[in-house]
Amino acid sequence: MKRILAFGFYVCAALACTKAYAQETAGNVLTLQQCVETGLSKNLDVLQAGLRMETGKINWNQARLNMLPDLNASASNGINQGRSIDPFTNSYINQQVNVANYSASSGIVLFRGLSMQNAIKQNALAYEASKMDWQQAKDNLTINIILTYLQVLTNQDLLVLAVNQAELSKKQVDRLEILNKDGAILPSELSDLKGQYANDQLSIISTKAALEQSKLNLCKLMNVPYDKAIQLEKLDAESFATRYDNTPDSIYSTALEQFSLIKAVDLRRESAARGVKVARGQLFPTLSLNGNASTNYSSAASNSVFTGSSEVASTDYVMIGGNSFPVYKKQNNFDTEKIGYGKQVKNNIFTSVSIGLQIPIFNALQQRNKVKQAKLDLQNTEYVASTTKTQLQQSIEEAYINMSSSLERYKTLLVQVGAFNESFHAADVRFNSGVGNSIDYLTAKNNLDRANSNAVAAKYDYVLRTKVLDYYQGKQLW
């Protein structure tokens, strides 16, 4: 009980110093949830995974739209010079002609070996897999932010411990300098404490560097500019330091149902199976229905308009009394009239409807090789799915071993801190009263400092390990 109380007092003092340190440093205090939400909205990997998901959705929608008829229209206008074919009369003319052509066509595939229907299902499964990939990217980022967040908190607590250690050494150096002036101690004892104080200052420098590096890593994950003044909200790590009850088997069983990565590889395997059916469907004949409508215009197009009849002399004649008289005949008279643009377009409309059947007989075995390739792709996704599940089971076992080990280490370090705290207290009393020497004092102090640092690191390490196991089960991580 004394050891636990002593360690509790030390932790309270460390937290108090951390609070004072945070108040001295200007900057916004970020919570774990804010860090995660910032990362999810700005991290490049998550954003790109979201774009790939949107691409999968577009491909799925396009596969469905491919079932609809197509509709295409064309229009052309031009000027023909010299000898050309009049599109109105389809005869040769030798003049400048303005021409125009308009057409519209539509077609729909009635049957293609169910290839299009299977393509819809294939792309739907691929889209669902991309959604799982997006979720997995967010989960990966979340756990990495949590781990880095805990690393920052660990380094903050270690910095507090280093500052406390240096303060204690400084007080002893100040006390021994006074005693050394009076000749009450050996000069070597003052030198020993000065060396220890310098060592504590070096520890502060290295811990500060580690703290800033962990903050920088957190900013990288959130994809925000580095801010040296950033402060993080403290977590009650003690509340997380409880025994983890789930077994590796139960965690693995839950992960198979909840882990996004497993869902993604299973969906991709199903999508690849549909891909084989899509390729096989291309071996069947294609039955299609097609329709077309077109019209044209020519500036050379004209009509003959009847204007009346008249009698004209022909080349024939008759002899009467030795005189020749021409023979008159009746002649119909016509005027040429240009056909209007709108009238031509309306009168020249041509339509057609056809049913086509395309039978693949031999195309260098391209389609059969595509079927073989699709089968290989399916086999590859099966390998990936099986290996991913095996690796997941191994990762969970490894994480559970690390979690169990870190818990036992944390418990042992608590006992060690209590023991070294008592030893240091005794050495401190002896040294201050002039009975002990600097070597015993420094040995006891270094043992306590090292045990305290290890205990802080072990506490957050255990929290980290439990969060990894929660991550595999798809639990809320904050």
Separate helix tally: 11
Shape designation:
elongated
According to CATH, the fold-level topology is Outer membrane efflux proteins (OEP)
C-alpha-based Rg, rounded: 45 Å
Which structural class do the helices and strands define? alpha+beta
Strand order of the largest sheet: 2-5-7-10
Element pattern in H and E: HEHHEEEEHHEHHHEEEHEHH
At the fourth level of CATH, the homologous superfamily is: Outer membrane efflux proteins (OEP)
**Known CATH architecture:** Up-down Bundle
Taking all residues together, what is the mean pLDDT?
Answer: 85
CATH class placement:
Mainly Alpha
Strand tally, please? 10
Low-pLDDT stretches are 1-27
Number of domains: 1
Helix content: 55-70%
Biggest pleated-sheet summary: 4 strands, antiparallel
Describe the protein's architecture and organization.
The chain has 478 residues and is of the alpha+beta class. The chain has one domain: Up-down Bundle (Outer membrane efflux proteins (OEP)). Helices cover 64% and strands 19% of the residues. The chain has helices at residues 2-24, 32-42, 44-65, 115-181, 187-222, 237-240, 248-258, 260-281, 341-347, 366-432, 438-472; strands at 29-30, 70-80, 83-85, 92-94, 97-111, 231-232, 286-298, 302-320, 323-338, 350-358. It starts with a helix and ends in a 6-residue tail after the last helix. Mean pLDDT is 85; it is low at 1-27.
